């Protein structure tokens, strides 16, 4: 074999080895990129869960303090009644009917104690349901900027705040196509909870911008924006209109100062309020 042939086969082998190594390297790099992206998503989900857990813990701590105070009152009344009843019985200064009346009072206190424990259990169950619903909403919406959409629980009520920058053009109540996609994700979660009732609230800042003649003032604008959202949720996404309320709050329920542009932007929003089921709450309060 000539030297030229030897050199040719050597170069060909080296080139073939380089191609195979390059393919393996690219495949490994692609796998690393995929794992890195998955890790970043999991980290974001963990942060959302931790934030909600901390918020829920504060609310539960307040409620627990109130229940502890009631339990202390009950313990005090029990001890006081027990001591008084024993003293009176020992002195034989009360009749059997009076003793029976005091005994019934003690039994009522015991029932009140069981009632409070039942309330505590029901409240814990409600908190768990709210947490699950919030996590479902956050998972459906994805990683939108908190300035555009914010989901929170306050005193047992779930609020979904969507900025008007995302929903509407300035001074308009026509919903943008991008906003309709977001509303569709929210609607999918709400539709899965058939017994949920909610209210759509329109909010504005305190500025009176130049507006078309068919808009009278900020009251009018806030109401029309709320009803625009309600129509989409009903007609495009099939939510039961009997479970929806539309409301306009104008400029009178701000979440920030109207003295700065940033504050006014925060106040221009549409809020979806998941309404508490008051009928179930009142049934819970009824004495058995």
Keywords:
60s Ribosomal Protein L30, Chain: A; alpha+beta; 2 domains; 288 residues; 5 strands; 5-stranded mixed beta sheet; 7 helices
- Strand tally is 5
CATH superfamily of the largest domain: OmpA-like domain
Low-confidence stretches: none
Overall number of domains? 2
Mean pLDDT score: 77
The tally of helices reads 7
The description of the largest β-sheet is: 5 strands, mixed
Spatial shape:
extended
CATH architectural label of the largest domain: 2-Layer Sandwich
Distance between the termini: 104 Å
* Assembly classification: single chain
Q: How much helical structure, as a percent, in the residues? A: 55-70%
CATH topology of the largest domain: 60s Ribosomal Protein L30, Chain: A
Percent of residues in beta strands: 5-15%
Strand order of the largest sheet: 1-2-5-3-4
Radius of gyration: 32 Å
Q: Order of SSEs, N→C? A: HHEEHHEHEHEH
Content-based structural category:
alpha+beta
CATH class of the largest domain: Alpha Beta
């Amino acid at each position: 074999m000539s030297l030229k042939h030897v050199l040719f086969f050597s170069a060909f082998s080296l080139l073939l080895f380089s191609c195979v190594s390059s393919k393996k390297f690219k495949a490994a790099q692609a796998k690393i990129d995929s794992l890195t992206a998955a890790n970043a998503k999991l980290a974001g989900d963990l942060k959302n869960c931790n934030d909600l857990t901390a918020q829920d813990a504060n609310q539960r701590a307040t409620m627990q303090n109130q229940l502890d105070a009631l339990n202390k009152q009950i313990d005090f009344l029990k001890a006081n009644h027990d001591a008084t009843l024993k003293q009176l019985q020992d002195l034989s200064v009360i009749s059997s009917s009076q003793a029976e009346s005091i005994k019934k009072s003690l039994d009522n206190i015991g029932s009140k104690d069981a009632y409070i424990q039942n309330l505590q259990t029901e409240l814990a169950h409600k908190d768990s349901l709210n947490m699950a619903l919030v996590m479902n909403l956050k998972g459906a919406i994805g990683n939108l900027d908190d300035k555009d959409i914010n989901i929170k629980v306050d005193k047992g009520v779930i609020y979904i705040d969507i900025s008007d920058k995302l929903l509407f053009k300035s001074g308009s109540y026509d919903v943008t196509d991008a906003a309709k996609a977001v509303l569709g994700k929210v609607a999918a979660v709400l539709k899965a909870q058939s017994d949920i009732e909610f209210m759509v609230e329109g909010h504005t800042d305190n500025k009176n911008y130049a507006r078309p003649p068919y808009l009278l003032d900020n009251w009018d604008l806030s109401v029309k924006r709320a009803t625009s959202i309600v129509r989409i949720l009903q007609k495009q996404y099939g939510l039961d209109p009997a479970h929806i309320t539309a409301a306009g709050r104008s400029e009178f329920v701000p979440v920030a100062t109207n003295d700065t542009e940033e504050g006014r932007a925060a106040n221009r929003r549409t809020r979806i309020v998941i309404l508490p089921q008051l009928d179930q709450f009142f049934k819970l309060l009824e004495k058995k």
